[in-house]
Specification:
The chain is of the alpha/beta class. It has four domains: about 5-70 and about 170-335, Phosphoenolpyruvate-binding domains (TIM Barrel); about 80-160, Beta Barrel (M1 Pyruvate Kinase, Domain 3), CATH 2.40.33.10; about 345-470, Pyruvate kinase, C-terminal domain (Pyruvate Kinase, Chain: A, domain 1, 3-Layer(aba) Sandwich); about 485-555, 2-Layer Sandwich (Alpha-Beta Plaits), CATH 3.30.70.20. It contains 18 helices and 26 strands. It has an eight-stranded parallel barrel, surrounded by nine helices. The longest helix is centred in the N-terminal third of the chain and has 18 residues, at about 40-55. The chain is elongated, with a radius of gyration of 30 Å.
Amino acid sequence: MRRAKIVATLGPASNTIEKISALIKAGMNVARVNMSHGTHESHTQLIKNIRQASLNVKQEVAVLIDLQGPKIRVDKVDKPLELKDGSSWVIGESKNIEKYPEYKDCYIPTIYDKLVDDCHDGARILFDDGLISAEAVERDRDVYKIKINVGGFLKSNKGINLPDCDVSAPAFTAKDKEDLLFGLENGADYLALSFVRRKEDVEEVKFLLHKLKKNIPIISKIEKPQAIDHLDEIMEVTDVIMVARGDMGVEVGNHLVPSVQKKIIKKCNERGIPVITATQMLESMTENPTPTRAEASDVANAIWDGTDAVMLSGESASGKYPVETVSMMSKIIEVAELDPKERPLLRNMDLSNVNASVMVAASMIAEKVDAKRILSVTESGHSCLKISFFRPKTEVLGITNHLETVRRLCLYWGVTPYRLFDYNEDDFNFQKDVINKVKEDVGLVNGDKLVITRGDGRFFSRGSSNSVKVEIIKDAPKVPGGQDSLSEASDDKKKILLDNSICASCQNCVHICPHDIWKVSDNDRRTTYINEAKISECTMDYECIRVCPTGAIEIIPMNN
C-alpha cells in the first residue's frame, strides 16, 4: 500500500470523465480545482465529472478548491517592454500613466493600486516569476522609480512579486469569497488559501465558515517570507499546510527552498498537521513521458522528509502525459516508502488527548500482534488523523458511514477510506456489518488479526468510544457430523473435535498443550491432527480452545 497521497491539478488535459477515471486508477487521491483559471460554469462541470468518475471506478477522491488570492500583475501593454540591465523605469497604476507624460516611454503599468504605497526604497521588485528583477529607488508622487538589475522582455499580465514589502492586499479577496461560496455549494472537501502571511488571514476565513455553519478544512499555502516568519502561529489555526514552492522560490530565493521545505515538514510532523509538498515536482513530464532523475529524487526526498502528500500542477492540468505523470509519482512514492522515515518518539508526543493516546496504542498493538489491518471507526475522521500522525506500519482502514468523511480521509497519510453501505442502524451488528464485509473486501483469511479502535463520535460505538480491541478472523465452528474435514477422537470422559476446514494452522494448540494431544503432520507441516493415543490425558482445561483463533476446536464432556 502507498501511504503518502497524491494531489493532482485538473485542467484542459484532464477534465473529462474518462481522463479523471484514469487518473484515479493511476493513484490520484485529491483533485485540485485551481480557481485562478476558468469560470464557475466550467468548474461546476469539472466537479460533476470528478464525482461521476469516482462512481465509475468505485473510489472516492477529495475535491480541493484552491483560491486565487491577491494577484499583483502587469497591466495590458501594447507590445512587450524591453527592460535593459541598468535602465531606469517607473511603475504605477495604469490610470495614472497620463498624469506623467515625462515617463511616457518608461512606464510599467500595474493593476495593483497599493503597490506604490507598499513599496519602499531599496526593495526588490520581481517580474515574471523572478526572471526580471529591479530595485526601488525613490517615490515620485504616485509612481516609484526603479532600476532594472536583470532585464528582459516584459509582457502583459505577468506577475509582480514584492518580497521585501509588507503587501497590504488581503490574502482573502472579494473574488476568493465568491469562489469559496461556489466551492461550498458544489461540495468542496478542502479549501486552499493562497498567500497566507499571518494567522489572521486564516482566522478570517474560519470565521466566515463558522457563520455559514460549514466545517471545511483550510489548507494554508506557505509561499511568502512573512508566512515563514509566522509559521508557528499559522499552524495553530490551520488544518493543513502546503509548501507552495513556486512563489516561495521567487520570494525567498530558490537556494533557500529545500531547507525551508524540510523545516516546514518537520514542524508539521511534530504537531500532527498534514503537509502537502507542491510545485514542479515532475515538471519535465509536462512535455516528456518520463521525469528527470533530479525530479524523481525530489519526490522521494519529500517522502523521506515526512510529507503527507505531494502535488502535481501543470503536469496533470495541461501536460501531454497527465495519467503517466500520476502513475510515475505513485511508483516513486512506493519505492521511497520501502525505506520509511522514522516516526516520532513517544516521549516527544503530546498524549494528553485521550483520543490521540488510544490511536497510538492501537498502532503499537497492531505491530506487536502482526495485525493485517487497523480498523479506525470514525464519524468525523479526527481519529484517523490522530493515528496517521503516529505513522503506523499497519495499513489503516477508516471505517465510516459518512461520504464527506470518506472524502476527507483521502488526504490522510496511511489511511484508506472505507465507507459502509447498507446497514441497519437499529439492528447493527459489528461482526456482521463490518468485520465480515472487511474480510470479504480485503481478502482476509481465518486467523488474521484486526485491531479495531473507536475514537470519535457515536458512529458504531454504542457507548464504547475510545477503545481498542483485537479481533481474530474466524468462522463459527462447524456442526459436528457429516463433514469430511471434521476430525474426531474420544474416550469415556470427553469428545474432541477439530474442524480442519477452518483450522488456521497456527499451531497454538500444539504449543500450549502439555500432554501432546495435538500434533503436526510430518508430511505437511500445515496440517494439525488429534493424537488419539493421548486424549485420556486431557484435563479439559480448554486452554487449546482459548488460543484457537478460528474456533476450529471443540471439547464436549461425555455424560456417563
